[in-house]
Amino acid sequence: MKAHKNYIDGKWVSSSSGQAFESLNPATESVIGKFQKSNKEDVKKAVAAADKAFHNWRDTPAPARAKYLWKIKDLLIENKEKLARLEVQEMGKVITEARGDVQEAIDIFEYMAGEGRRLFGHTTKSELRDKFAMSVRNPVGVVGLITPWNFPIAIPAWKLAPALICGNTIVFKPSSDTPLCAVELIKIIEKAGVPRGVVNLVTGSGNDVGAEIVENPKIYGVSFTGSKETGENILKSAGVKKVGLELGGKNVIIVMDDANLELAVSGVVWGAFGTTGQRCTATSRVVVHKKVKKKFESMLLNRVKKLKLGPGETSDIGPLINKSAVEKSARYSEIGKAEGAKLLCGGKPVKINGRGYFFQPTIFTDCKPDMKICREEIFGPILAIIETKNFDEAVKIANGVEYGLSSSIYTENMNFAFRAINELETGLTYINSSTIGSEVHLPFGGVKGTGNGAREAGILGIEEFSEIKTVYFDYSGKLQKAQIDNE
User: Fold this and answer.
1) How far separated are the first and last CA of the chain, in Å rounded?
2) Are both 3-247+451-471 and 251-431 of the same fold?
3) Backbone angles phi, psi at 359, to 5 degrees
4) Which of 90, 110, 115, 246 is the catalytic position?
5) Of the residues 16, 27, 42, 302, which has the fewest C-beta atoms closer than 10 A?
6) Domain at 3-247+451-471: CATH code
7) 190 belongs to the catalytic site
8) Strand ranges (E), 76-179
9) pTM of whole model > 0.85?
């Protein structure tokens, strides 16, 4: 069994711990590789390499940095099928979705490479004569990137691409559930010729590797995607540094009585059971108008019963990521029944050929907004249906959770559509589309418990990985006093 190494200062090296951990195929429970069980000393070495490389990388003109991103994009295209099949093997994603994951990485490197010709600041008029005022962008410095397992190529790319184009150097910790995807992505970055020390990979646990990344005083920015609990701990531990958090959601689709039900059902099936419900934007609640509830449920149940559960190469729904995820989904299924929700289908773990972390697509109906299955993030294929009598009540239910990532409404009423855009407390709102499907040239992120105001992708992805410096150029030849000499 091959033991994959860390990537520090342009070299593949073993951890000073001398220990390794295994990554499993969630569909078969077979071992696909061993990886470095790194410690704080490994992180410190990576930070030292990134710190040493920073000044040369910062001083490389942004259009020149962009050339590396173009190369990475081309190599991702060349290796798209290989990476997609690796995702099927290591994460369990179905093959069509895995290809989409890699395509997101291609798209974000392409988009951020274009930003190398922009990285705009602003110019404005000074309040004084013979004085010029502007702002410019600078990199944050050494940044730490901590990524989850559910998009093992795309989410690292969403962080790596803007961090690189802005001139930062990087210490990257992937999830221990999908380290091989991270290793292969770093091999592509290495092949693209990115200078040594600019990108460093350290695998290992959150307690050892993650904590040191967050607390290390030479890391000036941290970008994290994961659970709300971990995000809160990062904010407590990071000290005075730039922190970007994306912490999940309890996303809702509202189905009004005038909705195209065929379209709405398709959106719900895709949102709730795509990626086996393991997306931060997954649809976990449907608030449906009482006039169409029975018909909607019948149509939905008919569609869901046709879904094929199995390994990602040949199925509609793949496995959950690990045993703990199966146990969590099973626990919430029991909670839903105990709370009085009606189970329409699913609710049980499944083994295929005696193996794998599979869970049946699960639908509860007659749910109440205050039930745990309607408020807490499950991150599995479990959907709660809540009845509503009108639009105002639907919005109240939708907003009645601590998260605020993605929302959707199916309606033919323009008034309802625009009111939903205005009133739904989420960072993303879709009209007549599912809660998933973000595009890389638009900002991604949420409000309330979903994060701390950071946005990824689009121009705001540049904001996360850059600092603004304001510049005043006084060519008057005399001392001028702002707010005093202009009275």
Assistant:
1) 76
2) no
3) -145, 135
4) 246
5) 302
6) 3.40.605.10
7) no
8) 122-125, 131-139, 142-146, 169-173
9) yes
Reply yes or no on whether 374 is catalytic. Answer: no
| Paired sense of beta strands 131-139 and 466-474, if any | antiparallel
**Are 434 and 267 spatial neighbours (Cβ–Cβ below 8 Å)?**
yes
Superfamily of domain 251-431: Aldehyde Dehydrogenase; Chain A, domain 2 (3.40.309.10)
Compute the half-sphere exposure of residue 9: CA atoms within 13 Å on the CB side of its CA: 12
Reference 114, options 162, 76, 185; nearest CA is: 162
Q: What is the dihedral of CA 74, 77, 79, 81, to 10 degrees?
A: 180
Taking only the tens place, the pLDDT of each residue in 371-428 is: 999 999 999 999 999 999 999 999 999 999 999 999 999 999 999 999 999 999 999 9
d(CA 341, CA 364): 6
Return d(Cα 141, Cα 453) in angstroms, integer: 20
Q: Is the pLDDT of residue 1 over 80?
A: no
Given 166, 181, 280, 367, which residue is catalytic?
280
Q: Residue 485 — very low, low, confident or very high, per pLDDT cuts 50/70/90?
A: confident
- Taking every pair of Cα atoms in the chain, the longest distance, rounded to a whole number of angstroms, is 83
pLDDT at 164 > cutoff 80:
yes
Task: Look up residue 113 and give its amino acid.
Answer: A
Residue 487 is predicted with a pLDDT of 67
With a pLDDT cut of 90, the percent of the chain lying above it is 98
**How far, in Å, CA of 266 to CA of 258, rounded?**
16
Q: What is the mean pLDDT of residues 429-443?
A: 97
Tokens of 465: 């990985």
- Domain limits, the chain: 3-247+451-471, 251-431
142-146 and 221-225 beta bridge pairing: parallel
